[in-house]
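Exercise 7 asks you to align residues with C-alpha cells for two separate proteins.
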Amino acid sequence: MRFDLTDLRLFLNVQETGSITAGAKRSHMTLASASERIRGMEDTLGVPLLLREPRGVEPTPAGRTLAHHARVVLAQMDRMRGELDHYGLGLKGLVRVLCNTTALSEYLPPVLGAFLKDHPRVSVDLEERLSHEIADALRAGACDIGVLADSADLHGLHTQTFRHDPLTLIVPPDHALADRQSVLLADVADQEFVGLVEGSALQEHIAHHARRGGKALSYRVRLRSFDAVCRMVGQGVGIAIVPRVAAARYGR
C-alpha cells in the first residue's frame, strides 16, 4: 500500500466537502486528476472508499477508517514542520516533558513560564500522561523529563523531588466524614464521586488504586477542572479526591 500525502489530503478534502469536485478544487487539482487518484487508492486497497451518489459522495466504512488515519498522519506532519520551522528561526533546543494532571494544572505553568522567559531560544513540548506511562517513556527515551507520582515504578530512573503533593478527600460541609482527619480510599470507594473527565491522569491514578483494592469508583459527573469539581462537591453532588493545594485554594 503506497499512498502519498497528496492522496491523503485529497481524500480528506473530498470526505469533508462531500464532493469529488469540491475536494479537487480545495486540493488545487483538476477533477480528472482527483478522480484518478481516488480510483487508484481504491484499486490498491481492493475496496471502495466512497459511495458515489447523484448529490455527492459518502465514505464507506473503509473510507472512514482511511480518513481517521489520514488526519493522524497529516496532523503529525504539520507538527513536525512546525517544530523544524523553529530551528530555521534560530531555536537551539526542544525539551520534551511528560507530566501528570496535578503538575500540569498546579505546579508547572509558573515554573515553565519563568524558564521560557529566561531562555527565549528553547521550546517545550508538554503532554499529560499517566505516571506509570511517563516512567515507561523515560526508560524508552521517548521524552527528556517526566513529572510523575512517586507511586509509579521508578526503577532505573534518576529522580529528584519537585513538589510535595498529597491527595485530599473533599466532602460537603455537612457530610458524615467532614470531621475526619484522615480516611482510606477503601473506606469511601462505595460512595458517589465527582471526578475529572475520562482520560485524566489523576483520575486514572485513583481508579488504579481502587481496582487494586477490588473496588470500582462510581462517578455522578465528570468535569474538566479542579475548580468545577470542588464547586460540585460544595453543592452536595458527591465527594472527590483532589490535590491538597487545589482543595485549600477552593475550600470556600
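Second protein for Exercise 7:
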Amino acid sequence: MAKQTSPIITLLSLLILLFMISITTEGTKKSSYGVHNVNDYHYRKLFVFGDSYADTGNFLNSPSYKPPYGITFPHQPSGRFSDGRVLTDYIASTLNIKSPAPYSLRNSSDLQFGINFAYGGTGVFNTFLKGPNMTTQIDTFEELIKQKIYTKSDIDSSVALVSFAGNDYYPYLFKDGINIKEILVFGASLIKQLSINLKRIHSLGINKIAIGLLEPVGCLPVITKTYDKCHAVINLLVMKHNEVLLQAVQDLNKENESVFVTLDLYKSFLSVIETMQKNSTVGNVLRLCCVPESSIYRCGSVDERGQKKYSLCDNPELSFFWDDIHPTQNGWDAVYKMVQASLSL
C-alpha cells in the first residue's frame, strides 16, 4: 500500500519549485522583439551617429517637435521624425537599454545608456542644413572621451549605429536631369570619407559598429508623388552605392574581423513595401500618412491662425510612410524585424 503524501509536504514542495523557477528566470527581460536574458548581451551603451532616420531629438527647431509628430510614441512631439519610434529606439530595445539621450538634451543622469549625436538633415559631408556632419559628430564624441565622461570600459561595452548618406545625395537627385556619372563620382568620394570615419569610430574604442545601407530613395514619397511609383534609375544608383559600401565594409573587416556589420535597409524597405501592397487596406503604400495641403506646406504646418495645413491618414499603424521621407513607427517596426539578426550581438 502506497504511503500517502501529506498535503503540507506537497504544498512545501510546490513553493520550493516556484522559488527555483523564479531564480532561474530572474534577469530575463521582455523587449519589443521577444524575451532576452540581460546576460545575453555584454553591450551596455549605444552611441549613434546619423541623420533623421536615427535622430531622437537633436534638431531642436525642426518640424519633428510639432504635432502630429510623436502621436503614436511618446504621444507628443519628441524630436523623432515619425509618428513614433525610429531605428535608434529599436536597436536600444535589442540591447535592453533605454534609447540614449540626444546630445542636445543631455544631462549627467542621461549618460548611462550612451549618447545620440544623430541630427536630422545632416550627412557624411555638409548638406543644405547647418547641422553637424558625420565628422563633427565624431569630434563631439571624442571630446566626451577626453573629458572622461566615458571610460575605456564604457566604450568597450558599447555599440555604434551609423546612419548617413541620403541627404548627401538629394541635391543631385533634384536637378534638371539626373547626371549618373556625376553621382557615381560623388558616391565614390562619399564612401571613401565614410570609411575613414568608420575607422575613426573604431579607433576610439567601439568594437561593434552597425552601418545602415541606403534605403530605396526612389521609393520615398518625396520622389513617388511625382511618378506615383518607385523611380527605377534612382534605385539603381542606390544599389550601386550599397554595393561599393559593402565592399568597403568587407575591406574594413579584413583588418578588424566582425567589428563592422551592415543593416540592409534597401532590401528590407522594398520587402515590407511589397508585402504591404499585397495586403494593404489603406491604398497606395507609397503615399505618406501626413499630407500637407500644398507644396508650400509640410507635415505639421499651421497658418497664422493656428489652423492645420495638413491632413492625417486614418490609420498610421497601417501605413509605411509618415511624411515625404520617413517611415511610420509601423514601417520601422517591420523593417527592423528584418534587419535585427544582422546586428550579430
